[in-house]
Design goal:
383 residues, Neuraminidase, 5-stranded antiparallel sheet, 25 strands, globular
Length: 383
């Protein structure tokens, strides 16, 4: 490789899956320099738009703070590689989100200690702490805007000065809120004032689309139901994303996901079906269509096993829905996660399901990153 021109060597590496690139950079110093070359980053992203995704799985049982990458084969939806990610010593964490290959963590208990982790060089940065509020409930987001070239972390804090009780969460939605934002590279948080919407629901993993973070708001007795709320990372403004009239999105909570370069929503129906609505043109109410109907009665083999009693108290098991929609595979099938225990592909044409087993998959996991790859460009945030 050393005898090859830089452009040729980079072109060769850019055709490899991300797991192989991360392994290749450990061979020697010259290969490490090639793996961190910005040209390789640009070429890799331009060549993986039509390939199957890279997943990052977060596992907290039986050992806490475990991350694994999952790489699918290029020709079908089968798993090709499952590899662990070496993590530095950190407190028990939740994954706030991921973008451009960087992962954002927060401490599991107070959500006040925040870290940005670069898996390529196995390094993390602790972010400045922000002000604490009494009885606070925190919603977090992490994203990157392609125009400003800035990474930002947002904290939405609901708090009450009364003593917390069994109905504390409901009370927060009617009490005070504070929105704080941190631009990575800055030393302090900025306040954006109060959030003018109902309490947002913290998803298993945030939805970043077109430089905007998206959440679903809790229903309120004074309006018709849940809403999709976006936050533009460049303009730092919240906005309501329109939803279709007289649909299941109008009356139910739902999961947001990006499918085929479109913002989409998956919602459970009373008859056991999983409907997937797709917004073909962003922010255009009339462009929503009900694209998929998935039978919710399928049970993958991974769910037929008895639940370990010690895992029944896991935050993953307690907070996850039965089915999470993850992404579209390159063969047009939909990748699903079942109750933190199984990955399944669904063929919407044949209406068939296929379990995706692999001996390297953990018994319990939460998918926290879905993308073309993990980015190794560490210059954007000053590593």
């Amino acid at each position: 490789m050393e005898s090859l021109p830089r452009e040729v060597a980079v072109d060769i590496l850019s055709r490899l899956p991300i797991a192989s690139i991360l392994q290749a950079k450990l061979v020697c110093r010259s290969w490490r320099n090639l793996a961190q070359d910005p040209l390789l980053l640009r070429m890799h992203f331009s060549g993986t738009a039509d390939e199957n995704p890279c997943l990052v799985l977060h596992s907290d049982h039986p050992i806490r703070n475990q991350l694994r990458t999952v790489q699918f084969s290029a020709d079908d939806e089968n798993i090709e590689i499952v590899r662990g990610i070496d993590l530095p010593m950190m407190p028990e964490f939740d994954v706030v989100g991921s973008c451009n290959g960087f992962l954002c963590f927060c401490d599991s208990f107070y959500k006040n200690s925040l870290y940005v982790y670069n898996p390529c060089i196995n390094s993390h940065k602790e972010l400045p702490e922000s002000a604490l509020y009494p009885n606070q409930d925190v919603i977090l987001g992490f994203g990157f805007h392609p125009m400003t070239k800035e990474f930002k972390v947002i904290r939405i804090i609901y708090y009450s000065r009364s003593r917390p009780g069994i109905f504390a969460r409901r009370r927060f939605s009617r009490q005070q809120s504070e929105v704080q934002i941190l631009t990575l590279g800055c030393k302090s948080w900025r306040s954006l004032g109060q959030l003018p919407y109902n309490h947002l629901i913290q998803p298993s993993c945030q939805v970043l689309f077109l430089g905007k973070l998206h959440w679903v708001s809790e229903p309120h007795r004074d309006n018709r139901g849940t809403r999709i709320i976006s936050f533009d990372l460049a303009e730092e403004q919240f906005q309501i994303v329109p939803t279709p009239e007289s649909s299941s999105l109008d009356r139910s909570g739902f999961q947001l996901v990006v499918l085929g370069d479109c913002l989409s929503a998956a919602v459970w129906c009373l008859d056991g079906r999983l409907e997937i609505w797709v917004m073909k043109e962003y922010n255009v109410k009339e462009s929503w269509i009900k694209d998929f109907n998935i039978d919710g009665s399928y049970v993958p083999r991974g769910l037929e096993q008895d639940v370990d009693i010690s895992f029944a108290d896991s935050k993953f098991y307690l907070n996850s829905p039965l089915i999470r929609v993850l992404c579209l595979l390159m063969n047009g099938q939909i990748l699903l996660e079942y109750k933190c225990r199984a990955l399944v592909s669904y063929d919407p044409i044949r209406r068939t399901f296929k379990d995706i087993p692999h001996q390297g998959l953990p018994d319990w996991f939460l998918t926290v990153h879905v993308g073309s790859s993990l980015d190794w460009n560490d210059t954007l945030i000053g590593w």
